[in-house]
């Protein structure tokens, strides 16, 4: 599903066939989750294939490596150029791109000595066009920021995401809403969250979340469209039964939420700011400027 005999990846300094790439079994990345990675998307636009927010994603990858003491010397420009080359080698346009930085053989609990960059990409043609999600408050908490550096995108953090997401699926929901150690809403297993009440959007403040690039894009959209948005800490009770809510992330884009713990969000989706933001985001990734969008969406 992710690759076939013809797929190219960038691995350890060169482009090779995915089927020929090999790694060792003696590394901290595999054993301890000591790796950093990104999730990026490219889109077909009127001006060719464009990687959405490449600079922001690769700056975050470099920052994640730095926070984890993983030596990593690629510049954002080099990483972007390599990614466009990878997309072209694989004939990809609408794609999901997964950069991964792993460490050389070393089984100790000290910092990485050398790292290897892998770039993978596969076709991802449709965003979430589908239904709104039914979500539940997770019994798991997000990693405690005093135990992990939560603003870094680190492999090991995602064991928590798997537990939370699977618990929700096992209970018949689509996704989990995960709280921080104080019981405030943090995020989902792999996306940030916003809710809308009386014409204002609310999203958790930084500190216990991965501050998403899509979250930042939502702020940009709100600014341009004059939609009020507040970063604050809040409990799930404040969110339950609000007018609308959505998850946002590179993979999910903007996905509307149907209910939290079986309590529906009240307003007709099409009449919400959340819906407008979803539409704006869909257009933005396809290369339309926010100014153009404002005219099309007929907002002042
Ligand atoms: N939170 C978590 C835990 C995530 O894994 C992601 C996806 N990277 C996000 C938030 C959203 O981040 P972004 O918008 O940068 O994709």
Q: Summarize the main sheet.
A: 9 strands, mixed
Shape: globular
Would you tell me the structural class of the helices and strands? alpha+beta
- What is Rg? 20 Å
CATH architecture of the largest domain: Alpha-Beta Barrel
Proportion of helical residues: 25-40%
Low-pLDDT residue intervals, each spanning 5 or more residues: none
CATH superfamily of the largest domain: D-amino Acid Aminotransferase, subunit A, domain 2
Q: CATH topology of the largest domain, anyone?
A: D-amino Acid Aminotransferase, Chain A, domain 2
Mean pLDDT: 95
Strand content: 25-35%
Number of helices: 8
In total, the number of domains comes to: 2
Q: Order of helices and strands, N to C?
A: EEHEEEHHEEEHEEEEHEHEEEHH
The unique ligands bound to this protein are: 4'-deoxy-4'-aminopyridoxal-5'-phosphate
Reading off the top of the CATH hierarchy, the class of the largest domain is best stated as Alpha Beta
Q: What distance separates the N and C termini?
A: 44 Å
Count of strand segments: 16
Describe the structure.
The chain folds into two domains: 116 residues, Aminotransferase class 4, branched-chain amino acid transferase, N-terminal domain (D-amino Acid Aminotransferase, Chain A, domain 1); 165 residues, Alpha-Beta Barrel (D-amino Acid Aminotransferase, Chain A, domain 2). It is 27% helix and 29% strand. The protein is built from eight helices and 16 strands. Strands 8, 9, 10, 11, 12, 13, 14, 15 and 16 form a nine-stranded mixed beta sheet that branches. The chain is globular. Bound molecules: 4'-deoxy-4'-aminopyridoxal-5'-phosphate. The site of 4'-deoxy-4'-aminopyridoxal-5'-phosphate has 12 residues, from α5.
């Amino acid at each position: 599903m992710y690759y076939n005999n013809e797929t190219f990846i960038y691995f350890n300094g060169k482009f090779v066939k995915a089927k020929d790439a090999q790694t060792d079994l003696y590394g901290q990345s595999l054993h301890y989750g000591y790796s950093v990675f990104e999730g990026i998307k490219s889109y077909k636009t009127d001006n060719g294939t464009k990687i959405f927010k490449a600079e922001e994603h690769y700056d975050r990858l470099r920052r994640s490596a730095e926070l984890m003491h993983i030596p990593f010397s690629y510049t954002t420009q080099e990483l972007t150029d390599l990614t466009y080359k990878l997309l072209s080698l694989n004939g990809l346009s609408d794609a999901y791109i997964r950069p991964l930085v792993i460490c050389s053989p070393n089984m100790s609990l000290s910092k990485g000595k050398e790292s290897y960059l892998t770039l993978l990409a596969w076709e991802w043609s449709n965003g979430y066009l589908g239904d709104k999600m039914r979500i539940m408050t997770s019994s798991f908490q997000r990693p405690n920021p005093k135990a992990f550096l939560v603003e870094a995108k680190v492999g090991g953090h995602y064991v928590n995401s798997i537990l939370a997401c699977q618990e929700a699926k096992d209970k018949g929901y689509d996704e989990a809403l995960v709280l921080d150690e104080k019981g405030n809403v943090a995020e989902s297993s792999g996306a940030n969250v916003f809710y809308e009440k009386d014409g204002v959007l609310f999203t958790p403040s930084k500190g216990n979340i991965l501050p998403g690039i899509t979250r930042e894009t939502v702020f940009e959209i709100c600014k341009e469209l004059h939609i009020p948005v507040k970063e604050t800490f809040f409990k799930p009770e404040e969110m339950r039964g609000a007018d609308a809510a959505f998850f946002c992330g590179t993979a999910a884009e903007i996905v509307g939420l149907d209910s939290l713990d079986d309590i529906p969000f009240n307003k007709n989706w099409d009449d919400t700011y959340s819906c407008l933001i979803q539409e704006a985001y869909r257009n933005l990734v396809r290369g339309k400027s926010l100014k153009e969008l404002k005219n099309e969406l007929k907002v002042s």
